[in-house]
Amino acid sequence: MSDKKAKKGAASGDGISVANHPRARASIRRTRARVALIAFGLVLYLSLKSGVPGQEAALRALVAGLIGNLAAWACALAVWKSLVLAEIKVAHDAHAARERARADAVAELVAAEQKARAEKAAAGV
């Protein structure tokens, strides 16, 4: 039983994912809603304009809205997955650059200290 809870906790934990991204979830929701409404309105308008009866036009519009919602979800998810991976890469590169700068600073301090010791030893001899 505890294995199931551990797996569930790991799956819904604070790991890196599109679902946990602060802007991605809201953006995907907005995109899905907008595309669904546009598809619904466009299909309803075109159906009514072409002489399709009202109930049939509404049914077509609902189906178009649902398909638009699912298509927008898939596209937005793919886009945000790429964006999240790019953000992770940028953060990793920035961290690596800071670590290199820190290591260079330490190396300079060690070299300066060794130079000072060598000068002190040369002056004392």
Roughly how many Å is the radius of gyration? 30 Å
Q: What number of structural domains do the residues give?
A: 1
Helix content: over 70%
Low-confidence stretches: none
Order of helices and strands: HHH
Tell me the distance between the termini: 74 Å
- Output mean pLDDT: 87
Strand proportion, as a percent range, falls in under 5%
Output the structural class: mainly alpha
Shape: rod-shaped
Main sheet attributes: strand count, strand direction, barrel closure: none
Show the helix and strand layout.
Layout: H1 2-11, H2 24-49, H3 54-124
Helix pairs in contact: 2-3
Walk me through the structure.
The chain has one domain. Helix 2 (24-49) packs antiparallel against helix 3. It has three helices and no strands. The chain has 125 residues and is mostly helical. 10% of the residues are buried. The chain has helices at 2-11, 24-49, 54-124. The model has no long low-confidence stretch (mean pLDDT 87).
Give a quick set of tags describing it.
single chain; 125 residues; mainly alpha
In short:
This protein is an all-alpha fold.
